[in-house]
Write a structure and sequence with these properties.
- Helix content is 21%, strand content 27%.
- The chain has 300 residues and is α/β, with parallel strands linked by helices.
- Helix 6 links the parallel strand 6 and strand 7.
- It starts with a strand and ends with a strand.
- The radius of gyration is 19 Å and the shape is globular.
- It binds iron/sulfur cluster (SF4).
- Iron/sulfur cluster binds next to loops.
């Protein structure tokens, strides 16, 4: 029998994998393989699944990722139109500019949807894994944006300050540095002593605190007035735990995924759940708990 589901108040974050690819090949990408064969990908089925999740948790967060959400603005618009204004919407993108999608197209799209998009998370890495559009486009975006930078393996530490300075110049910038999440374990999630990235950032920024939950954490820094966070998260998003009050063992979900085919999954990998497909009738009866993300340390 399936264990009952539990999640945070408001519901799990729903991450939607758009049914079209990006033009990059980042070495840490775990999604690229899925885009190699697009058989069964369906915009229509994704939209149906967005409607299902909206009905169950009408105030959850939606994240659009890929692939590349901005590679097909017409399809992205169709999906966004299925997400009512009760949700926060985040878009993970490289902000690609091409002959078919110009800067003007991206600006017109973001302007049209600015009341719906809470933040655009723009991938920019110290090693040039992704084709980058002009930084000036960031300054023109009519919605909040954040730079996401994976500090992968032996990243060039001498490039950290120039990288940070590059974005500090752009009004509204903040940076989220990320550990390669495929290498995160419950043991190293909160370990700062042996974490090279924490040591490197401690030399550059002023540490202001740590927040976190069972699944992820963030080391916060101030760099001459710009906010930076070093984010670590586990490579799966379900935790199995017995509630000491009711003695029931729950599958505690942090992220739900709408895959490119429209299938809904309860986790990123099968590390915890043998069958990752979401039991939708069971999720309609999900038990809510307060979100366990909290400040663990704050430094004035
Ligand atoms: S841009 Fe994103 S989806 Fe594309 S290869 Fe890099 S990590 Fe993967």
């Amino acid at each position: 029998m399936h264990r009952p589901y539990k999640t945070r108040a408001g519901g799990c974050t729903v991450t939607v994998f758009v049914p079209y690819d990006c033009n990059n090949n980042c070495p840490f990408c775990v999604n690229k393989g899925e885009y190699a064969d697009m058989t069964g990908f369906s915009l229509e089925k994704i939209c149906e699944s967005i409607e299902v999740m909206d009905k169950i948790t009408p105030a959850c967060d939606f994240v659009f990722t890929g692939g590349e959400p901005f590679a097909n603005l017409d399809s992205l618009q169709i999906m966004l139109d299925k997400v009512p204004y009760t949700h926060h919407v985040y878009i993970n993108t490289t902000l690609p500019v091409s002959k078919t999608t110009t800067e003007e197209d991206i600006l017109a799209f973001t302007e049209k949807n600015k009341d719906k998009i809470s933040c655009i998370n723009v991938s920019r890495h110290m090693q040039h894994y992704v084709v980058e559009s002009n930084d000036e486009l960031l300054a023109k975006l009519p919605v909040p944006f954040r730079i996401n930078c994976v500090l992968y393996q032996d990243y060039p530490v001498e490039g950290l300050i120039p990288f940070i300075e590059r974005f500090k110049k752009i009004p509204g910038s903040n940076i989220q540095f990320r550990f390669d999440y495929t290498a995160t374990t419950p043991e190293n999630l909160y370990d700062s002593e042996h974490d090279k990235i924490v040591h490197d950032l401690n030399k550059i920024g002023r540490y202001t605190g740590l927040d976190g939950c069972r699944m992820r954490c963030g080391f916060h820094y101030d760099y001459h007035g710009m906010e930076m966070v070093y984010h670590k998260t586990l490579p799966y998003s379900c935790i199995v735990e017995e509630d000491p009050k009711d003695r029931i063992t729950y599958n505690i979900l942090y992220d739900i995924l709408i895959k490119q085919t429209g299938e809904i999954h309860a986790d990123w990998s099968d590390a915890v759940l043998k069958d990752v497909r979401l039991d939708i009738p069971a999720y309609r009866h999900v038990v809510f708990e307060p979100y366990d993300l909290h400040w663990i340390e704050k430094v004035e």
